[in-house]
Structure formats: C-alpha cells, structure tokens
Amino acid sequence: MAYDEQLAERIRERLGADPGIDEKRMFGGIAFLYQGNMAVGVTGDDLMVRVGPDGTDAALARPGTRIFDMTGRPMRGWVVVAGEAVAEDDVLAAWIDEGHAFAASLAPK
Asked: Which residue ranges does the record assign to the TfoX N-terminal domain (predicted)?
C-alpha cells in the first residue's frame, strides 16, 4: 500500500532534526518513532497517532478520527485521523505533538 508522501514530509518538517526520531516502514506506510516508540505514522492518506489508552476517548471525540484497526482487533491507545482532517498545519502539529509526547513518556527501546 502506498502512503501520502506529502503528509510524511509535513511530519518530517514538524519533527525537525530531533535526534531521537527514526523512520521505519510499517503497516504498509511509514512510522516515526521517538527513542524506539512509535509516535505517529502515515498509512494511505491518513495519519496514525499513538495517544495512549487514557487518551483514546478524547482523541476519538475530535473530528476525522477512528480507532486504529488493521487486523479486526481495535488497538486502544491508537487512532487514525483522516488525511483531510489534518490539512491545516496547526491541526497536524497538534496531533504530531500529542503522539510525540506520549512516545516520550515511555521508556526508550
């Protein structure tokens, strides 16, 4: 599955030169990991965000979101945000920052 390269580039720009960030192909797209923990990613035209189990309900209340479910088993703590819902840079930045903050709260891998 191809993924939205422009969305991936916008994420790269937001994360800047953070030395803790690595990119890895996964889920048929690309993931951005902070110290080995996934923060955000792109699958198809959509943004994946790791918000943590406690952040799931609040994240799902925001526009354009759905639970992350690629295998028929929903993954609590992860949401998918429709590409059109992150068209504005400030909205995308907020999601990236949320995913980055959650990944930073975890022990490095």
From this structure: 19-102
